[in-house]
Structure formats: structure tokens, C-alpha cells
TrEMBL record:
Top-level taxon in the UniProt lineage: Bacteria
Pfam families: Pyridoxal_deC
Protein name as it appears in the record: Glutamate or tyrosine decarboxylase
Organism: Micromonospora auratinigra
PANTHER family reported for this sequence: PTHR42735, SPHINGOSINE-1-PHOSPHATE LYASE 1
Keyword list, A-Z: Lyase, Pyridoxal phosphate
Homology family: Belongs to the group II decarboxylase family. Sphingosine-1-phosphate lyase subfamily.
Gene3D superfamilies hit by this protein: Aspartate Aminotransferase, domain 1, Type I PLP-dependent aspartate aminotransferase-like (Major domain)
Record PTM N6-(pyridoxal phosphate)lysine, positions in chain: 250
Amino acid sequence: MTDQKLTALPARGVPAPQVLDEVRALRAGDRPTHGGRLFAYVYDPGVAGLDELAQAAYAQSAHVNGLDPTAFPSLLAMENGLVGAAARLLGGGPGSTAPDVVGSVTSGGTESLMLAVKAARDARPDLAEPRIVVPTSGHAAFAKAAHYLRVVLDPVPVDPVTLRPAPAEVAAAIRPETVLVAASAPSYAHGVVDPVAEIAAAAAAAGVRCHVDACFGGWTLPWLRRLGAPVPPFDFTVDGVTSISVDLHKYAYAPKGVSVLLHGSAALRAPQYFAYADWPGYTMVNPVIASTRSGGPIAAAWATLRHLGEDGYLRLAATTRDAVAGLADAVRAVDGLRLLAEPAATVVCFTADDPGLDLFVLVDELTARGWHTQPQLSYAGLPASVHLTVTASVAPRVAEFAPALAAAVAAARAAGPVELPPELRALAAGLTPDALTPELVAGLAAGLGLGATGVPDRMAVVNTLLDAAPPAVRERLLAEFVGLLQRPTW
């Protein structure tokens, strides 16, 4: 039996101070959420006092339930305020060309995208096999939505140089059964903005909805434009754009669990709702996937926006822009590395042209030096790359990053590329998902140091193995690996 202090349900209750000490001890092994050294997953503005404000607002509304907005008008007021702020920032609202924009607050970008697909699908009940057209650079949540909602996903490749889809190819992929066409502003992997105006025009010509996934950039691109950046049209000012998603827990710097899905009109939003009265209980009416929702994240987001204001976000965007430029210069200064795309927003993405420089080893070397980046595997002719999500808190660290990157590159070159045994590489490349039995996966995991105790400090071998496998095998391997990690503690 696990030691009582680590058991979620001990025989005797534990005093509150001890519980908090245990939480802090568990958190000690996590990546740093603050301080500008983690380039994925978290968004830190580096604003003193903001965490405390958000936490206090969260606590005020943690037990408020979004299931019934008539019971808790405070939550309804805050949700409507968040939707209005996002709509105004993205070209909608009174006096705009999209005055009838409405929206909903969701738990995150994945839920926003799933609901955009649901609304498009349910608006066409006449179709037996609805389809969506999405660039291959579109977020994986579109594929998740297609899987959950039984919609066919029609991917459109991106140009290997521009990393954007060709509008003509998007138009050619639209069929009579297509219910939604998607574009990214920007794409998560590479940080480039799709040709939204041309894609929306193609969708409109076919009478199809067009969703802009601005989860990642919707709260930064407008401020960058105000600062003079050449941001292409992507929002409700573009004819043919019918819905937009923007995450507030990214560059609005709210705590996790808040995104906004906007529709051009109430009629476009209507199929998003789920209502059910054919049972003896209360009539269920949900604008989003969840029924019960804590008001905590919404209150925290509302407080964050109120506190920072437009002037605060403009300052944070300027700080982030400067950090992006500094990081990009650091990459350009290293022989053997090159930017995969010129930064257009808040992403720095780079690859290696030097065969003696293994990107996955480089990622490990950066981690060893306290810099936590995100490796991206090769795909459809696109090389493996390293992704940096840049936030305002990174700016004070830029001067430290450049020498750390140079040192990590030197160490990676000295270590040399990962060499998988030929038989293991052949196995990875030739496997099919059905051949991955639990026994085979468990054996691979044990050999790679993956298991119930966690993951190894260095992941280059694991990433090299995954990179050698086709996408379907990667999916199955990673699902099985995560399954090995997620086991109950007794």
C-alpha cells in the first residue's frame, strides 16, 4: 500500500497545512510555470500581483454553477462581458461590419473547435456524411472533433516553404457534403497565418461556413497590428468568416480553462446548443459540452481582463514582440540551425540543416540547462523542428537564452545523433497499429525507460523512435505509453 500521505483517500483526514505541503512537494517535479523558461503549455505575462488577483476572483466564484445562468446572474454577466470583449477585439460588435456577433465561453480551444464543428454539422441535418476541410497544419482538435462527431476530415496539404495551404487547393477540396472550412491565425506548430481572406472567399462561394482558429493568436494579432506589425486580415472584417475561436487562457493570460467561441450571428450559433426535455427531470439546455461548470475560471478571466485593460495588453504584446525578435536572432546566430518560418506572431520555430546536429538531442541539452522547449516530429516532407511559444515573461531571459542555445548546440554536436539499432528502426517504420500488442508496447516502454515511475530525463531516443514511425503508429504508441503512466495509486 502506498504511504498514507500520498494516498488520495487516507483512513484519517490530514491537517490542511500538511496537505498543502504535500501538494507543494508533488509540484516540485513539474516544469516551471513562471519565469520564462518553459516554451509550451503555459502563458506567463510576468505581471506582479496578477496571479493573486485571478486566484481571489476564482475563489469568489468557484462554487457558482454555469449549468443555469438564471440562478447565477453574476456568471452570466461575466460570460457576456468576455464574449463582448473578444468580439470587439476581433472585428465584431456595434458599429462594425459584423454587429450581430454572439458567442459562448468554453473550457478551452479544443472545446471551442469541437463546438464550431458541431454547429456546422447540425446546421445540415440533410447530410448523411458531413465533411470538414482543414489544412494539415490545422490544430489536432479538428481531427478530434471529426472523430467524436463522426464527421469526415478532408486534409489539405501545406506548402513546404510557406507552411500555408494554397487557397485553390482548399477550394478544390470543398464538396457538396462539406459543412465547414477551417483556417488558422496562426497555426500552432509554425506560427504562420493562413490566407484567411482567400479561404473564406472559397467557402462563401460554396455556401459553406468558415471557421478561423485563432485560439493561439486571436488575443495577440490585434495588438501586434496596433503596434505596426503587418498582420493579414483574419477576423470578422473578412467576408465569409462565420466563426472564430480565441483562448483567453493563452495570451489574455487568464488561468487555465477559458476560451471563447464567436459566431457571426445568433442563427449561426443556434445549432451549437443541446436541449433535452424528454425525461422527468429538469430540461437540460447547454450552449457548450459541459453541463455543470465552475464559475471560477470565468471569474478569474474576467478579473484578468479588467485589471490589464487594453493598455496593459498592448504593453505585453510589445514586450512579447521584442522577445520573439531576440530569440529569432539567437537561432539565426547558430550555424546549422534555421528558422522554419519567419516569426509572424508569438512563435519561434526552427530546424537543423546540419546532419551532425540532432534536434532531439539538442532539446535534451536545452532541458538540462533549464530551458524547456517542445520538439515536433517530421511530417509529410516537413522536417522535425523545435517549437517555442513566447510570452511576455520570456523577454528578461532572452539574453540568457542565446549563450545557452549555443552551448546546447555544441554539446549536441559532441554527443552526436541518436543511432537506433537498424532492426528497431525497421520495426518502427514497418509496424501497423494493429501489430502493437500491449506486450510489445510494454517491452518497448521498458527498454526506453517509460513506465509507472515516469519518463526518463532525456527523451531523444524516444523521439527518434517516434519520428521513424508513421503517424498512425505514433498515435498508437503514445496512447499506449500514456496508458502505462496513468495507473491508479493504491
